[in-house]
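Holo prediction. Input below; ligand is protoporphyrin IX containing FE.
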Amino acid sequence: MRIKVWDLPTRLFHWLLFLAVAAALWTGWVGGSWIDWHARLGLLVLGLLVFRIIWGFLGSTYARFAQFAPTPGRVLAYLRGRWRGEGHNPLGALSVFALLGVLTWQAVSGLFSNDDIAFKAPLASLVSSDTSTWLSGLHRQGLWIILGLVALHLAAIAVYALRGKNLVKPMLVGWKEADDLNIKSAKGGKLWALLLALALAVGTVWVANGGLLPPPPPPPPAPAW
Ligand code: HEM
Ligand code: HEM
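Structure of the complex:
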């Protein structure tokens, strides 16, 4: 029986997140003149995360956080081989929350960072220069945490593939074959919820990009020689 697991917004979110995070890691690492692109990509990641967090409450069945919250009871049942369900399993859910949390921290810390050369992130003027430098240091270290979590994510998917379970196809096409008749297709995730999540994501990116800050003072006039 074919059941719907991942709705289109969740799938688009995932693959855009993958592309944007990969590009942000690369441009951040290279730095220099790529830093402007890095900031744009970081803002895109922030927008995607805000969208996903709202979709975690308003999206369709398996996209909802309550559906896959890794409570101790569920994790134990999974480890004992007694968990039955669809969507993210309780261990996978731990990694999903870790990825979403660390990426949110990374995007927010980036907003207050500077590159010690010419670039100041849009909200850096809201904190002292010492705080901005401290946050830039933490932001740089985020690279290794993100690489570690992504490596774990890909390793888990590879282990499932070796055991004959293809998790990637449902994340691409949205559906999978299920033998258990108790498992139901995803429901919910209405158009109004999608529009609300998109509007809040765009609004947050606008504010994060300094939309509410006063415009910078004009540069001093060039000296008259
Ligand atoms: C920067 C790289 C990546 C990041 C940050 C990332 C992040 C995530 C996140 C946050 C989720 C949870 C989806 C949700 O419920 O919204 C997820 C799920 C998933 N990701 Fe990725 N991902 C990355 C790369 C990849 C790649 C390259 C693949 C494929 C080879 C992949 C395959 C999957 C699959 C199959 C799931 C669903 C797992 C399940 O069935 O529980 N991811 N990923
Ligand atoms: C989740 C999204 C983001 C990721 C994955 C990310 C990743 C990175 C990485 C890997 C570096 C370089 C680390 C190193 O040189 O060792 C970096 C540096 C930097 N990022 Fe991000 N970043 C993100 C979001 C942002 C945002 C939104 C901004 C600002 C709008 C930003 C501003 C900066 C700045 C200014 C630096 C230079 C820091 C320094 O040289 O001390 N980042 N980022």
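The chain has one domain: 2-208. That is the main takeaway for now.
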